[in-house]
Amino acid sequence: MPMRSLLFVPGDRPDRMAKAATTGADALILDLEDAVTLERKPHAREAIAAFLAEPCGCARLVRVNPLDSGLFEADLAAIMPARPDGLVLPKAEGAASVARLPEGVPILPIATETPAAIFQLGSYATAADRLLGLTWGAEDLPAAIGAATSREADGRFTPPYELARSLTLFGAHAAGVAAIETVFPDFRDLDALAAYAARGRRDGFTGMMAIHPAQVPVINAAFTPSEAELDHARRVVAAFEANPGAGALALDGKMIDAPHLKAARRVLGLD
């Protein structure tokens, strides 16, 4: 399943679900957790189950409540019969958390929302066959440790949260699954979003979560190779195919070798 853009939709707003499916998002995250108050959760479960029962042009994931919330079991009972395309698990703490979810449904853990979770990011490789990818969050973790904020005044992450971001990125690639960048909260500043998403792709993320429909086309563009990138990747692959015994070659006045070939094949969807 392509996952450039994953758009959050509050689970208690069925009026927004069908509209969200027309935004071009690769996946919707129908939210039963933070976007829904406690008293609205039963209504949200019913609304999500009804939406899952209808045809849709994109993947539909459900963010359930945390495993220890006392709400998780009711979430599963309501939505699993409707067969979501995957579950988003908040406050996940490694492969052991994944093992507690039902077999047969792909999981996207939000993998950095507790202090203990940081030390489990390498364990997801043992549960790779059950994962859609790995993603992270920069809101719950600072709250959990009493930090004032996760960001500098200019919007950049402070060092502890850059570390969480980096470990998620490496944990995803170690498991061989999609690395999904966290949300960009200022949905009105699309130029800043474009720069943020471009940085994510540059660093090795393969997609990004969105909190507003206006963010979807910007994210899709950032995580879609340009024609120039595709052309360069084709020429790298062609150069090595024409010289099968070569370990390194010159292309456009620069040396290319095995890592460049691997990157080119990834751009072309060959690996």
Description:
The chain has 271 residues and is of the alpha/beta class. 39% of the residues lie in helices and 15% in strands. The chain contains eleven helices and ten strands. It has helices at 14-20, 41-52, 72-79, 95-98, 115-118, 140-145, 159-175, 190-203, 215-222, 227-242, 258-267, and strands at 5-10, 27-31, 59-63, 86-89, 107-109, 133-135, 178-181, 207-210, 248-251, 254-257. An eight-stranded parallel beta sheet has the order 5-4-3-2-1-8-7-6. Strand 9 (248-251) and strand 10 (254-257) form a beta hairpin. Helix 10 (227-242) crosses helix 11 (258-267). The longest helix is centred in the middle third of the chain and has 17 residues, at 159-175. The chain is globular. The mean pLDDT is 91.
